[in-house]
Amino acid sequence: MPTKGLIMIHTGAGKGKTTAALGTAFRALGYGWKILVVQFIKGSWHYGELDSAKKFGDQFQILPMGEGFTWDTKNPERDRQKAQEAWEFGVKEALTGNYQMIIFDEINYVIRYNYLEVAKVVAFLTTKPPALHVFLTGRDADEQLIEIADLVTEMREIKHPFKKGIKAQKGIEF
Ligand code: ATP
Ligand code: MG
């Protein structure tokens, strides 16, 4: 049976959306797959996974596309431009057929804040290479994306150390 490339969404307010996608990538890397991660949001800290990915060489590429694009934006027009570029880059790479999996990290957030049109994402997902697996992560996933996805998981916060005033820690949060 040919591979059925899945459309997978991790959404919700609880922790684990990005890391569960990276965990799946880690599993797939064991089979020699090539994987691309397009990060739409660049946090103010350095993420450990950027260095982990380097250990896999060409097999695992993580591209933080939103250069200067942070959670607390000061220049929405520039952020919009960066989001469009990140999206177009991801699509172009997807169509090369070089990758078995693509993770669009925090894409739900950029769609929610109108930095990227959901119609573009729907158009890609409905015409993508059939064997390509795609992850879309981030809070507030768009209904249209949920509709066409094969897998949708909502991370629900029951407890988070942040609420107790425990700051983000290396290896867990970044
Ligand atoms: P992770 O990358 O740890 O899997 P995530 O992708 O689910 O988290 P994001 O919405 O991308 O979460 O949040 C980015 C950062 O905020 C991460 O460092 C994450 O640990 C932290 N975070 C996630 N959920 C919560 C929460 N409910 N309260 C406070 N901080 C959170
Ligand atoms: Mg995340």
Q: What's the helix-strand series?
A: EHEHEHEHHEHE
Mean pLDDT: 92
Bound compounds, each kind once, are:
adenosine-5'-triphosphate, magnesium ion
Strand order in space, largest sheet: 3-2-4-5-1-6
- Report strand %: 15-25%
Distance between the termini: 39 Å
- Total of domains: 1
Summarize the structure.
With 174 residues, the protein is α/β, with parallel strands linked by helices. Helices cover 34% and strands 17% of the residues.
What does this protein structure show overall?
Required for both de novo synthesis of the corrin ring for the assimilation of exogenous corrinoids. Participates in the adenosylation of a variety of incomplete and complete corrinoids. This protein has 174 residues and is of the alpha/beta class. It is built from six helices and six strands; from the N terminus they run βαβαβαβααβαβ. The model has no long low-confidence stretch (mean pLDDT 92). The longest helix has 20 residues, at 76-95. The N and C termini lie far apart (39 Å). Strands 3-2-4-5-1-6 form a six-stranded parallel β-sheet, sandwiched between helices. It has a single domain (7-155), classed as Rossmann fold (3-Layer(aba) Sandwich), CATH 3.40.50. The chain has helices spanning 17-29, 48-54, 76-95, 107-112, 118-125, 143-148; strands spanning 7-11, 35-39, 60-64, 101-105, 133-137, 151-154. Bound molecules: adenosine-5'-triphosphate and magnesium ion (MG). The site of magnesium ion (MG) has 4 residues, from helix 1.
